[in-house]
Amino acid sequence: MTTQMTPFYPNVDNTVRWPITPQVYFEQVKEGDDIPAVDFNLTYQRMIMFVGATRNFPGLHHNERVAQKRGAAPGIFLQNNSCLMLWERVVSDWMGIYGRVRAATFRITDFHLAGEIIHVGGKIQKKSQDNGLNLIELAMESMTPRRVGMTGTVTVALPSLKYPTTTPRWDREGKATVVCQ
User: What whole-number distance in Å separates Cα of residue 109 and Cα of residue 103?
Assistant: First the structure.
């Protein structure tokens, strides 16, 4: 007797829609404005997914016993590039699809541990124009439940109201080409 296998396809939830964030333009922002903050729940699943996505496999980032044995932290903690991924999410949600990240600087001052809620936000520190680019420097901060966990800056280029779909493209030497899409 042969058993016929039938494929199983779970129902798809078509009610969930990811809205496209409204585009932010250079003329619309002012120095001192806050950008919308996001709270990230650092579940064990999310932490291990970050490790897999970055292929950074030291046990410190996904194994409690290894992290404790090495005296690095009380438990598993977020790696540097994953901390930056949190900032990238907040910044990209704020700036819209035609904004581009130009540079980021950061300093980690406290562990981002599994099981914590990390509050990430920023403030517009400086507006400038350079060779046709509309640059915004954001002062960014990640708050752990204990204290500030990471500080730094992210510089982005925004389109203008006059040329709403203009975006920069950087080459390896850091020279920008402005592209109208």
Answer: 20
